[in-house]
Design brief:
Number of domains: 1
Radius of gyration: 19 Å
Largest sheet: none
Organism: Pontibacter indicus
Protein name: 1,4-dihydroxy-2-naphthoate octaprenyltransferase
Pfam families: UbiA
CATH class: Mainly Alpha
CATH topology: Farnesyl Diphosphate Synthase
Structural class: mainly alpha
Distance between the termini: 60 Å
Subcellular location: Membrane
Keywords: Membrane, Transferase, Transmembrane, Transmembrane helix
Shape: globular
C-alpha cells in the first residue's frame, strides 16, 4: 500500500527551510559573550533564553525577512532558497507567538524586550517600511539590536537585574558586542550587491563597495577587539585576553587572506567565501567566550 502524500506537509517543510534555524549559530557569540561577563544568573533561565532566541526569535526574523525579500539567489545559510509561500508567514506568526509566550514565563520585562526585537526586525524587512533600504539606519538597527540590545536581553532573561546590567563595565561590554556586529554585518551583504540594487535596497556594503566594506569591517572589528581587551586588562583578566587572542587568530588570518584575494580578484567575493567567513568567525568567537565563561569556575 502506497503512503498517502499530504501536500501541506511539504509546503510547511519548505517554509521551515526558509526560517534557517541552523543559521542562528552565527548569532551565538553574543549569547556566550553576555554570560561570560556576568555573575548571578540562573542556569536554567540562561538555557531557556538560548532556546527562545536561537530556535524561535532568530528564525522568526529570518523567515519574515525571506517572506518580504523573496530572494531568488543565495542567502545566508541557503545556496538555493525554496520558493516563498504563505505557509512561511504562518510559521513566522507561530514562532513569534511561542517566543513571546515562553519569554513571558521567564519575565514580563524579558518578553517586552523580545517583542521589541521582533517588531524592529519586521520594520527592517517589511516592504511598507523597509529600513533595510537605508544604509545607515539599517546598519544602526541591526548592530544595536543584534549586538548590545541582545547582549543585555540575554542577561535580563537569565535573571540579572536591569539596574545591574546597565551599569559599567557591563554597558561597555554591550558596546563591544555592537561594534563586533557593526563589523560583521556589512560582510554578510558583500556578495549580494547586484540583487540588493535590483530590489532597491541600498545596503551599507553596496554604498561602501567591496573594498570599502572590507576596510569598514576591519576598523569596526579592530575597535571592538581593542575595547574588549582594554576592559579585560582593566578588570585584571589576563587569561581572558590570552584566550580571546588565541581563539580569534584564525578569524584574523582568514579575513586578511580573503581581503588579499579579493583585492586581486573580485570573484573571490562570493557566497561560499562569505559563509566560510561567517562560520569561522562565529565558531571561533563562540569558543573564546565559552572558554572564558568556564574560566570563572576554575
Amino acid at each position: 500500500m502506497k503512503p498517502v502524500a499530504i501536500p501541506w506537509i511539504g509546503k510547511y517543510s519548505s517554509a521551515l527551510t526558509l526560517m534557517r534555524v541552523p543559521f542562528s549559530v552565527y548569532l551565538m557569540p553574543v549569547y556566550w559573550f553576555a554570560l561570560s561577563v556576568a555573575d548571578g544568573y540562573t542556569w536554567w533561565r540562561a538555557a531557556a533564553v538560548f532556546l527562545i532566541l536561537h530556535v524561535l526569535v532568530y528564525p522568526a526574523s529570518n523567515g519574515y525577512n525571506s517572506y518580504h525579500d523573496r530572494d531568488e539567489g543565495s542567502i545566508g545559510g541557503l545556496r538555493q532558497p525554496p520558493k516563498v509561500t504563505q505557509e512561511l508567514y504562518h510559521l513566522v506568526l507561530l514562532f513569534d507567538a511561542l517566543s513571546l509566550l515562553f519569554s513571558f514565563f521567564l519575565s514580563p520585562l524579558f518578553a517586552l524586550a523580545v517583542a521589541l526585537y521582533l517588531l524592529v526586525s519586521k520594520a527592517y524587512s517589511h516592504r511598507g517600511i523597509r529600513l533595510k533600504k537605508y544604509p545607515v539606519i539599517s546598519t544602526l538597527v541591526v548592530t544595536v539590536f543584534q549586538g548590545g540590545f541582545t547582549f543585555l536581553m540575554v542577561q535580563l532573561g537569565s535573571g540579572l537585574e536591569i539596574q545591574k546590567i546597565l551599569q559599567p563595565p557591563n554597558s561597555w561590554f554591550a558596546l563591544v558586542s555592537t561594534l563586533f556586529l557593526c563589523g560583521s554585518y556589512p560582510l554578510t551583504q558583500i556578495y549580494q550587491h547586484q540583487e540588493d540594487a535590483e530590489r532597491g535596497d541600498k545596503t551599507l556594503s553596496l554604498l561602501l563597495g567591496i573594498r570599502g566594506t572590507f576596510v569598514f569591517a576591519g576598523l569596526a572589528l579592530g575597535l571592538g577587539a581593542a575595547l574588549l581587551i582594554g576592559l579585560y586588562l582593566m578588570l585584571g583578566q589576563i587569561y581572558s585576553v590570552l584566550v580571546f587572542l588565541l581563539c580569534t587568530a584564525p578569524i584574523t588570518y582568514y579575513f586578511l587572506n580573503w581581503v588579499r584575494r579579493s583585492w586581486q580578484d573580485p570573484g573571490e567575493v562570493n557566497f561560499e567565501n562569505t559563509m566560510r567567513m561567517n562560520k569561522v568567525s562565529s565558531l571561533c568567537i563562540s569558543l573564546a567566550f565559552f572558554l572564558i565563561l568556564l574560566l570563572h569556575f576554575v
